[in-house]
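Attaching the record inline, Q. Sequence:
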Amino acid sequence: MKKYPHLFYVFAVVVMLGLGFGLRLYAANRLAVDHDETTYLIASNTYANYIRNGQYSWLAWEKWNYEHPSLNKIIFGVALLTQEPLEKVQQSDLIDGGPIKQQQAVEYAMTARTVSVIFGSLAVLLLSLLNPLAGLFLAVNTLAIKYTSEVYLEALPMLASLLAVMAYSRFFQCYTNKSHNPAKAWRWLALSAISLGITAASKYIYCVAGLAIVLHWIISILQKKIPVRTLIALLVWGFFSILIFFLFDPYLWVHTIERLQKTLAYHFRFQVSPHVINANYPFWQPLAWLFSPFSTYRPIHDPSADDAMLFSIDSIIFVLAIIGLPRTFKRHQIFFIWLVIGLGMLLLWGAKWSQYPLIIMAPWCFSAAQGVLTIVDFFKVKLFKKNVA
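Structure, as predicted:
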């Protein structure tokens, strides 16, 4: 009899993976060309040509789209090797707002979109392994679907940051367990560091997951759950993460300090740029994106999303996530910290683009799952009191 719950769990995880993949693939074939897709496709095709021609040193020397790390675009480029060589992607090959199927570069764009679909679906799988209900919410969330179905830089760092936190959680469990296996614990910590390095090499803002890990570690020391001497392990973990980040971001292999300063300076300038100011989003806009991302009353509306999404329960997920916060704090504190730090960053940062909330989408959906369990527990108590009476 004990086998059946296990089989049901496996079945639920597989269903979540299939649902997440299916909804993303459906969206990828219907979403209109988004604003940044052309930029990323141009960069990715450039990397593809360097690889095809054996000009590997140019993976480091290329400066196009310097504001973001290069790993994700290189991976897109590797996928583009399956297509006929294209000397250069022109702006006219992928026109902002145009139907994806009517674009000159449709095969190239769809190839890169499929890469995002795969990474986004793997994130659904990973979260489902922790909690199938949380995986369900991530699978169907329309904001997550949109930006993990396009040639955007969201799917890979969302997956990698989730793996970094989950691997750290396993390390923490192994380390604090009375019969803990030290070797196993350190392997999980190494995986966390590698994943965080890949996160940084994909998109910087997703490193908020790393901040959550550091804060959770320090709090655990203060609460005497782990000894002070583990600060050495924390420093090693951080150093290893930075090393992995450097190895996976060829852009920083040359003129490292100068290029890193240039990238960071760009982002601090951009949040007060005319483009951001003209958008005129309120500070609470990230919450609006999470509640109802494609409502027409927003300053920016994507009409193609109406056809690309079969249904939307984002508002329900929003309410459940709020309800689930206390339980998340009690049951999985690292996810609570990740959510709070990430949301605080989103509210304080000047640019409020709709893809940014994906930095907290995994803990957000986990909290929504805890919200469901909170409601179930509430009615169980009510039913028990009624039966006793």
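DSSP finds 19 helices and no strands in the chain. The mean pLDDT is 92.

More tomorrow.
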